[in-house]
Each structure stands twice: as C-alpha cells, then as structure tokens.
Design goal:
The protein is α+β, with helices and mostly antiparallel strands and 788 residues long. It is built from 24 helices and 22 strands. β1 and β2 form a beta hairpin. α2 crosses α10 and α13 packs antiparallel against α20. The chain is globular, with a radius of gyration of 34 Å.
Length: 788
C-alpha cells in the first residue's frame, strides 16, 4: 500500500514539476534560514551547559553609575576576596581568577587562582593531583593543548616535574595536566598558577578598575540577597567618601556562572558575551521566512484545486473517505517538505561558508546532531501540517457531481483568502525593505555627521597598560616616542591624551559660580596633551587652549550654557574649583549619536602622569610606509608589545557595530522575503495564465492586443502589492521609529522612503508576473482554442 501511495504521489509531483519546484525552492529557503539560525542559537546556548552545581556558584560583578550612565563590568578588586573571607557569612568557597597578561600578546589565558577553582570547573585530570596541583606558588597546571605547545612529543604523565621559564624570569614546575573542556565554555584558561601574597592586597578603592574575576560557592540554603548585602556594606564603608566626592557609585551584584556568557550588559575583557534578546529577534526572522514559504505553498496548492477536482471526484465515487483524502494530501506535503529539507541542508553549508565572518568563532565546527535531528523533524512536521491541512480540508468540500462534470472553477477563494495571504507576504517584505532603508540612512548619518572634531587620517595607539617600570620612565618613553614621530615626514602631528569619542573619562559633580549664582552639574573630564585640540581640529568658540603649568581648563558650550553664562566669552576667566576657564570649545560628541552631548572639560595632562593613548595624524599619501616606520620606532621602545593601531574613524564605526550587524541581517532578510514572495507570484501568474488560456485566445480573436492582455493579467497582482504597500507603510514607520528612539541624534523618516520601497515592490512584482503574462498573450489563439 505504502509503495503504491508513494509512487502515485511522486508521479503527481513530477507531473506538476514547475509548481513542485517552486514549492520546494520556497520551503528550502525558509528551512535553510531557520536551520542556520538554529545552529547559531544552539551554539550560543551550549556555553557552560555542563555545570552540575551551577546553582551553587556565582560570579561577583559590578554595576557602575556615573553621569546618568550605568555600566556593568565583570572585573573586581583583588582586595575584595580576602575581605569577603573575613567579613561575609554564607560562603563555602572563594575562587579568584587573576589573569596574568603576557607582555607580548596581552591576556593569553593564563590565570592565577586557588585549588577550589578545580572544584568549580570539572576537568578530567590526565596527570597530577587536583588537591595539591596548585598548592605552591611555583607550580603550574596546563591543559593538554597548552602542554602540547610546550612539549609536543611528551606524554602528560612524563611532564610532571618539568619546568617552564616565563617572561618574568620565573621558573614554574609542571604539577598537573588536565584535559581541555569538551564543551563550549567561557572558562577558557590554559595555564593555572597559585595566587601569590603580593597579588592579594586589602584594597577596595576604585575596585571596578581592577583585573580580577571572583567566584563564590554559596552555602546551601544561604540567601543570595543577604550575602550580597554584606558585600555591598563593605564596599559602602570603604568607598563612601569617593562616591560623595565624585557623585559616582558602584555596587556589587551576582551573575550565575552558567549565565556569564549571556551577560552582555557587563564589560568583560576575558571572554565573549552575547545578548540573549538577539536570539528572540533571530527566531522571529526565521519564523517569518518560514511563514512566507508556507503561504506560498498554500496559495499554489489552493490555486491548483480546480485541476484536481475531477481526481477527487473519482476517488470519492470509488469509496474514498474524506479524511483519507485529506491525509493523502498532507502526505504529498510531507514529501515536498522532505525534498525541501534535503535541498536546505545543502544550501546551509554554502550560506555558512559565504557568511562565515558574521558567525562567532567555533560555530561552523559545532553541531549537536541529536538536537538538530529533533529540531528538523519537528520543523518539517510542523511545516507539513500548516502547509497541508487547509488545502486538504478544501479537497474534502468539493462537490462530487460537479467535479465529475468538470464544473468546478473556483475552490477555496471564499472571501479572497488567497489574496489576503499574498498581501500578508508583501507586507512583511515591505516592512523589511523600509527597515533596511531607514537603518542604512541612519548609519550613513552616523558616519557623515559632523561630530565636532576631525576623525579621518588619525591613527590611535594604546600604550602598554601592564608595566613594572617606574612612572617617570614610562612618561619619558612616551615623550620620546612622540618626539621620534615628529621627525617623520608622513606624520603631520601627534598628541597624547584621551580620544574625543570613547569611554575614557572621569565624572565629577562640579560647582560653577554662574551669573545667577552657584550651579552644580555633572562634569565629564578628559585629559589631553599639548597639540591635542589642533590635531582633532577642535573649534574654539572663545578663548584659547590650556597651557602648562597653570591650572587651566577648556569647557564645551554645553557646560557654559548649563552654568548659566549668557555666551561663551562670559565664561572666560571664571574659576571652577581652583581651575580657571581659558577657553570654550564647540560641542563635540563623546559617546556616539545614541547619547546627547554632555558638559565636559578638557585639562592638560600633568607632566608626571602617564597617558593612555597617543593620536597620530598622517599625511594623505603613502600610509603603509609611514605606519611601517612608526612600527619600527615603537618596537625600539616597546620590544615586548606589538604595535597595535587603529584608524580612529574605524574605531568610531565599531562603536555602532551592533547596529551595522542589525543592518546586514535586515538587508538579507529583505532580499529573502522578496525572493520568496516573487516565487509565489511567479507560480500564481503561471497558473492563472494556464487557467485563462481559452479566455486569452477569445480576446485575441476579438482584437485584444498583447499589451492589453499583459495589463489584464498583471493588474490583479499589482493591486495586491499596492494594498500591501499601504498596509506596510504605517507598520514600518512605527517599527523604525521605535528603533530610532535609541539615538539622541537621528534622521527624520521621509515620505520618499515609503515611496521608494513601494515603487520597488511594484516593479519587482511586474517583472515577476509580466513575463508569464507576456508568454500567455503571444500564444497563437488557434492553439489555445483547438480543444474546443
């Protein structure tokens, strides 16, 4: 029975191979998108999934609030751990992780910790003892992969007792080898030491600037809130004066260790984090694409009903039961869905390879086959059910007598249900097109808007932050590097100091004595060097640049206005907490276009203080040669730190990296939705042309022109697309206005955006259906009327 059923089903699909191919292609595109998104989401959700005691362990993190901006960071002060050990109850284990930076390569997955770390993270021990492996300061535990780098031909057991000479001239003895964790994890350390007493200070001031991860194992039954209150009480007692002085505060919070990969609102330099909300957006896009493909299938299947009416009538006459016929049709849908799945599996390899740069490292090689199999079987079953149940139900409602007489011309149209589905398809496509246009315009605006400073041809370089040199020697090396740059003809000017747009600044609650009396405001501060304002071509509205050694500052226009000065010139010469205002600079953007311009002051770097950055303006030609020469100068002064630079305009563009990724996703989604919609229109246009072939022949005999017939066949579809434009425009306007609310400085959505999207939709629809209409219109009427 089943072989015969399968044979007749495949025979029917082959007989209607054009529509079968359109259905398979449409469903395969939707399935491919859904499977690629599943692989991405499943990969991200696989992180830290294997922790058996995840509920017992938490990571201590910090929330910091300054100048109405709240941030999170996962690094805490080294001194917090001993204070917790002494003063906080309800904790079984304290596990600090201090990343040991490699001077040449930055953080290189080398951490100092305590033996309790290996209780929290379950490694398979290949050699050594878990309890005593990091009992002494001169011991080191390696993962298998790191051990193979150091001793590629040695077995793990043979490595115990061997030594490694590190950069700091420390000789460490290998005391253990562990297997690399066999699952995706944010715990990616490769070498483990014991924290030394020198790294264990009792200092919590400015704790949010430290470089330590801290994990706690809470006592079973202990209240997390109570433990957190005790930790924050220590922080409040230690740093109350700091909070009051700078009107800034930070407090501690907990992150479950199996959720740290998803703590995207916490800055973490040690591991990559993701925003779990993005998963919902991606899942929504996949659902929409699948829904469009299902709509195509339903439209084409219901449109083919009149041609199948005689078959259904014969089967019903021979004893076929309605529900058997319905399930037979659902079976045909399952066959189409399975064929579409096979095609989609081939397509997804090509899609992932083509867009590999957009996917996180490791995703391409990761696939949980059992979970993927369950997902795909469930997805195909759902598609088959949704795609087949409505057309199958319609088949059971066909009048047998009318079907056998060939008088069934319309099935399933009802109140134009098929037209509603077409409109729905193009509404979704239009919303994506409008979104792509608006996002593209906003991102172009972020790149072209005057930010208040010149950003092109500027190279930003970070000085090494980890150094055992005396501050005086570090400052001398920075000044020498700047002096060496001034001799190179490819360098216009260089300046030490913070970048104009970025997160490096401090915030103070500052009192201005304005014309109307004292005014207290939150004032952001940036430290600059001589020539900094000239390098970035800052526009002075009034006054001059600050000079050394006087305590002089420059404020921006927003600060002058907030203080109540009637104009910029009125602020010149006024004292602000023992600093004299000598200039007012035109407002410039500090955080990007998502945040409004804040009051800010610029003060010169003190002669004995190190700078974090140096900015270098290049001439407009031969940049590679200039950068190569700068690299040589850098290596002569910092031989252990590679010359790592970034063009500042690229740095600014990366500040909107999430929005650029969103733009790419929306652009691709718009293309795919239009493609799926066009496949459906093409199939329906072909079917309508076949069904109306006799009518077209009669019209041609009566003198109708080819253009008139093409217009007649195309007009119905164009009207539906125009209706979708009318429906989609307010939806697109509402959605994109919600997105634009994230920007303090944004574009206004112009009417021509919707007009352009609508014209594009109409043109694409015309190109899709007019070819089939033209083919039908040029057929010789003798051929179309011959059977009569």
């Amino acid at each position: 029975m089943m072989p015969n059923y399968l044979r007749t089903t495949l025979r029917y699909l082959w007989r209607k191979r054009l529509f079968t191919a359109l259905n398979i292609l449409g469903l395969s595109i939707g399935l491919c998108a859904a499977f690629v998104i599943f692989r991405l989401v499943d990969y991200e959700l696989s992180f830290d999934r294997a922790f058996a005691d995840a509920d017992d362990y938490v990571q201590v993190a910090i929330r910091n609030k300054s100048a109405d901006v709240e941030n999170g960071v996962t690094m805490v002060a080294m001194g917090l751990a001993p204070r917790i050990e002494q003063e906080v109850t309800g904790i079984d284990d304290i596990i600090p992780m201090y990343y040991h930076p490699d001077k040449a390569h930055g953080i290189d997955r080398r951490v100092a910790t305590l033996p309790a770390y290996f209780d929290m993270v379950p490694y398979l021990w290949l050699a050594g003892d878990r309890v005593t492996a990091v009992a002494q300061p001169n011991q080191v535990v390696l993962t298998r992969s790191r051990a193979e780098q150091y001793y590629p031909k040695e077995k793990p057991a043979d490595l115990i007792g061997k030594t490694i000479d590190y950069d700091e001239n420390k000789v460490m003895t290998i005391s253990g080898i562990v297997e690399d964790l066999p699952y995706n994890t944010s715990f990616d350390a490769q070498e483990f030491f014991r924290i030394s007493q020198e790294e264990w200070p009792d200092d919590l001031e400015f704790g949010w600037r430290q470089n330590c991860l801290l994990f706690l194992k809470l006592h079973r039954g202990a209240s997390r809130e109570r433990v957190l209150q005790q930790i924050n009480a220590i922080n409040e007692k230690q740093n109350r004066a700091y909070f009051e002085s700078f009107s800034s505060s930070y407090w501690y919070t907990f992150i479950p260790i199996n959720k740290r990969h998803y703590a995207a609102d916490y800055y973490s330099p040690t591991h990559r984090t993701v925003n779990s909300k993005v998963f919902y957006g991606l899942a929504g896009i996949a659902a929409f694409l699948l829904l469009l493909a299902i709509i195509n299938y339903v439209n084409l299947s219901t449109a083919l009903m009149p041609q199948r009416a005689r078959e259904i009538g014969v089967r019903r006459t021979l004893g076929g039961v309605s529900h058997q016929l319905a399930w037979r049709f659902v079976g045909e849908t399952v066959c189409v869905a399975v064929l579409a799945l096979a095609l989609s599996l081939a397509m997804q390899h090509w899609v992932i390879a083509l867009f590999s740069d957009y996917f996180p490292e490791g995703m391409v090689d990761y696939l949980d086959y059992p979970r993927a199999a369950v997902y795909l079987v469930g997805l195909v079953s759902l598609i088959a059910l949704l795609s087949g149940i409505y057309p199958a139900w319609l088949l059971t409602r066909i009048n047998v007598v009318a079907a056998l007489k060939g008088k069934v011309d319309r099935v399933g149209e009802g109140i134009s249900f098929r037209r509603v589905l077409i409109v729905f398809q193009f509404v979704i496509a239009q919303v994506f097109v409008v979104g792509a246009l608006v996002i593209g315009l906003q991102l172009r605006y972020t790149l072209t808007k005057d930010l208040g400073f010149r950003k092109d041809a500027v190279v930003a370089v970070d000085f090494p932050t980890v150094s055992k040199e005396a501050d005086s020697l570090s400052v001398a090396k920075q000044l020498l590097f700047q002096q060496l740059l001034s001799r190179h003809p490819g360098v216009v000017v260089s300046a030490l100091g913070d970048l104009p747009m970025g997160t490096s600044m401090v915030s103070h609650e500052t009192e201005f004595v304005g014309p109307s009396g004292p005014v207290i405001m939150q004032l952001l501060g940036k430290t600059i060097g001589e020539g900094w304002m000239d390098l970035y071509e800052m526009q002075l509205v009034s006054g001059r640049e600050p000079r050394i050694p006087a305590e002089e500052i420059v404020i921006n226009e927003s600060a002058a206005k907030a203080a109540g000065y009637p104009n910029a010139a009125a602020a010149i010469g006024e004292l602000v907490e023992n600093q004299r205002i000598v200039g007012v600079v035109a407002d410039f953007h500090l955080y990007g276009l998502k945040v409004g311009i804040k009051p800010v002051k610029l003060s010169l770097k003190e002669s004995g203080n190190k700078a974090k950055n140096i900015s270098i303006r290049l001439t407009q030609h031969n940049w590679p040669a200039t950068l190569a020469k700068i690299s040589e100068e850098w290596t002569s002064l910092y031989p252990e730190t590679p010359f790592d630079y970034q063009f500042y305009d690229e740095h600014i563009q990366q500040m909107h990296g999430q929005d650029h990724r969103l733009a790419r996703i929306v652009n691709y989604s718009a293309v795919v939705t239009i493609l799926i919609g066009c496949l459906g229109l093409f199939g329906l246009a072909t079917l309508v042309s076949l069904q109306r072939m006799k009518e077209i022949g009669i019209r041609k005999v009566l003198g109708a022109s080819v253009a008139g017939i093409v217009r007649m066949l195309s007009s119905d579809f164009v009207k539906l697309v125009l209706v979708s434009v009318v429906v989609a425009s307010p939806i697109g306007w509402w959605v994109m206005n919600l997105w634009l609310e994230n920007f303090a400085y944004r574009i206004d959505i112009q009417w021509w955006v919707f007009a352009l999207a609508g014209v594009a939709a109409v043109v694409i629809a015309l190109l899709t259906v007019s070819w089939q209409a033209f083919r039908a219109a040029v057929v010789n009427p003798v051929d179309s009327l011959r059977d009569e």
